[in-house]
Amino acid sequence: MSRKITGATLVAGVAGAPVRHSLSPIIHNAWIEAAGLDAVYVPFAPSSDGFRRFADGLRGGVVRGLNVTVPFKEDALAIADELSERAALAGAVNLLVFAADGRIHGDNTDGLGLLGAFAAQAPGFDPAAGPVAIIGAGGAARGAAAAFVTAGAPEVRIVNRTLAKAEGIGEALGAKVRAFSLDAAARAFDGVTAVINATSAGLLDASLDLPLEATPSPAVVMDMTYKPLETPLLARARELERRTVDGLEMLVRQAVPSFEAFFGRTPPAAVDVRALCLAAIGGQA
Ligand code: NDP
Fold first, then answer.
1. pTM for the whole thing?
2. CATH fold of 111-245, please?
3. CATH 3.40.50.720 corresponds to the domain 10-108+254-281
4. Which helix (H) or strand (E) holds 257?
5. Does the annotation count 176 as an active-site position?
6. What is the predicted pLDDT for the residue at 273?
7. Ligand 1 atom, smallest distance to 141 CA
8. Where are the domains of the chain?
9. Which of 62, 58, 63, 108 is closest to 83 using CA atoms?
10. Which of 31, 104, 161, 257 is the most exposed place for a label (fewest CB within 10 A)?
11. Would the CB of 203 count as within 6 Å of ligand 1?
């Protein structure tokens, strides 16, 4: 890639710590290049207590916006002056847009990415057709729960190591959400249409040992972790002949509304950003 930076180059980026291995610059810069935009997407790594100072300094829109990843999502929620309906419902923010008047708009695109990944990799899956189980109760789980409630799921079961955090999602999202401890996962999987891993457990090689055999055979199993692309959870699901959805598809699809917010146009379809990400993480298509 050899692009010229000019006085008019638009800037957006991703903030995280660490941010070195983020795939978002690969995705957005490939779209920028294919669209012929005078723009650049940059990784930023503020110090662990420096995110708010950093984001405050961007007020005014010289930098169009930021995707926000671990560990700054809570700071992003706190610093936003206004939230989109879906971010407010989720109580989680992964996108900040800096308006010219100095205000910061917070949004959450994880839910759209998740449902888009189901539509792509589990065709015919209907989020309103039955209960779903989400493992984890952090920001990603909140975004997923809000998306499923909005899409008409009759029940969303949050299964989490710390039960109180799962109960907190229920308090925020209402009676359709039920909380389960990890010990009760088999009960939570009874009759579900989908199981979604939204924990960071796999990241530390302490893969979750979930009782997937308790799910009905048409259930779809999704893992938000995408390194490796086929996680132990997805491998087990395939053994049980469940359909699977991977976290990379979600990552690529949550980037679409971010690109639109930064640059005011849809990303060009011609460039295969999934293949570029796979090459970067050493996976197969
Ligand atoms: P958080 O740190 O906010 O939440 C992590 C959750 O994982 C908590 O509920 C925590 O449980 C649980 N957890 C962590 N370790 C274990 C373990 N060993 N056993 C059981 N539960 C555990 O993270 P996020 O919600 O922001 O992200 C979660 C994951 O989703 C990350 O891996 C992230 O990379 C991924 N993600 C992927 C996206 C994609 O596009 N594919 C988008 C967003 C996130 P407890 O509450 O008990 O601490």
1. 0.95
2. Rossmann fold (3.40.50)
3. no
4. helix 247-263
5. no
6. 98
7. 25
8. 10-108+254-281, 111-245
9. 108
10. 161
11. yes
